[in-house]
What does this fold into?
Amino acid sequence: MQNLKMNALTFSEFGTAEVLEYKTLPTPTIDTGEVLVKMKAIGLNYADIYRRKGNYHLKGNSPYIAGYEGAGEVIATKSSKYEIGDRVAFTDVPYANAEYVNVPESQVIALPDAITYDVAASVLLQGLTAHYLSEDSHNVKKAEIVLIHAASGGVGQILTQICKMKEAIVIGMSRSEAKLKVISRHNANHSVLLDDKWTNKVLDITKGVGVDVVYDSVGVTLQKSFEVTREKGHVVFYGMSGGDPAPVDPRMLMDTSKTLSGGDLWSYITTHEERNKRASILFDWILNDKLKLEEPVRFKLSEGKAAHEFFEAGKSSGKILLIPDSEF
It folds into this structure.
């Protein structure tokens, strides 16, 4: 494989989507315990935008290849666990915006025959995040009132459905009035616009008591999230899409017996067995129609610039996938 070339979506400087370049590079080689995956579908995530802009961790040297999530077929192996022809996926392997990716066997997720490459690349990162949020950060219980910020986004859509499976009452929020329909489509009990009156609306829904748990991925809303949380309630902070939150006063936590916890997926899928066990739960839900995904939007890998611009404009309610040109 050492002499093979591949196409990849790269950037050599930080900035807007204009810095992206579709280039020919050497195909990576594999070492013991690794497999070479021919990519079939690549998930585009906000982290890729942040890396392109230079404000998120980034591996390698210029020209950089972004992307950490995708699915494809094993075409070369030095692993005792995986064979040529195996259908696999991953959520946290760098340089995924390419035709071929070198994947350590510890980070491989095996795909059932009935799960397509598009579905795998659409659900894993966001689905595994929603799973740990609802099971580990706060184990959602029947009849609890759950407030989900950014409920029209990828994690929010899945988290809403998981909470409904657990028979919770879900209040979904979005900054976009047009996307309130997406929240309702995934069976949230209430959809609320994130405007200057959103706290009043939430308190009205809960008859002034407040919610049991808030999942806050916006950041700047954190203080107000506490305002709509009941006494002894819980706020889970796991993202900053709207900017950094103000510092939280520990005296407020003491006086109200409220709890604040942080959330990061990589604290929970630390082993090969753990990530495959959790992924299997997601796959089972999908195959049994318990978890539904919006239709993804597919771009050729060579159209990466357009895909980034489309993503940043907030034009899609489904996952955006980059498909190698030879597979499109």
The chain has nine helices and 16 strands. The mean pLDDT is 95. The chain has two domains: 5-124+269-327, 142-263. Residues 55 and 270 are 25 Å apart (CA to CA).
